[in-house]
Amino acid sequence: MKKKIELCLSDRTVSTELPALIMGIVNCTPDSFFEGSRGGLERALELIEEGADIIDVGGESTRPGSEYVSAEEETARIIPVIEGIRKVSDIPVSVDTRKKSVMEAAVTAGADILNDVSALEDDAAMASFAARAKIPVILMHKRGIPSSMQGDTKYNDVFAEVSAYLSERADYAALCGISRDKIIVDPGVGFGKDLESNKVLIAECGRLCSGQYPVLMALSRKTCIGQMTGRDIKDRLYGTLAADLVSVLRGASMLRVHDVASCRDTLAVLQSFRNSGLVNF
């Protein structure tokens, strides 16, 4: 049972025969929660070698308790990495930013995808720029800002509230000229949610926005994995792989991960069983 997963960029298409596209994380920051993701071009090249479909570059940490940085500092951190990737590879590059000036510089340097944790809310000029550039956008749900977001994690119905928010932001993106086939949604696991809320969003991810948009899940080594396994960050790989697998089985088509090779192996085993017809999930 094969179903090709693909994403249309401004000038080409990225696709995979595996059950999900794999986005490798490169944090060009000194304070991202997982030390193994920090780095620059060298880290990006490692993830490309491991088989990433997309490289996600970020210059501003959004872990719980982190503080925002200036656009100038963020730009200075990521542009050399994007330029370095472009010298050796045409792999799609996603940029984790909330700021139009940063994204504009990144696209000029060769970036292909916007990954906006504010779902186009923090910079009024971002949506129209993304529309003009014809780039895909990832819209994420969060509550509050990273420095204080874990202070309010209660919802009446977390799935309904997150899904409604993402639908509203997708409608806004479309109104600004972004093609709906270039909209991806992310429920924002760990961003203003407690463990039970995170589990609901993982288990029901494919139903977000009534299944209208591809779903990206970013679960890698997060606190909720630690809560479920009792493991520290450095020992959360196996728990992450299990959670990623659950999310794919429940409808996710993109995974944002620190550990690309392990993720590819997990998806390859699932695909092998599907191809053989021995499983129907």
UniProtKB/TrEMBL annotation:
The keyword Nuclease does not apply. It catalyses: (7,8-dihydropterin-6-yl)methyl diphosphate + 4-aminobenzoate = 7,8-dihydropteroate + diphosphate. It comes from the Bacteria. Pathway: Cofactor biosynthesis; tetrahydrofolate biosynthesis; 7,8-dihydrofolate from 2-amino-4-hydroxy-6-hydroxymethyl-7,8-dihydropteridine diphosphate and 4-aminobenzoate: step 1/2. Residues 20-268 form the Pterin-binding domain. GO terms for cellular component: cytosol. SUPFAM superfamilies: Dihydropteroate synthetase-like. NCBIfam families: DHPS. This is dihydropteroate synthase. It comes from Treponema peruense. The gene is folP.
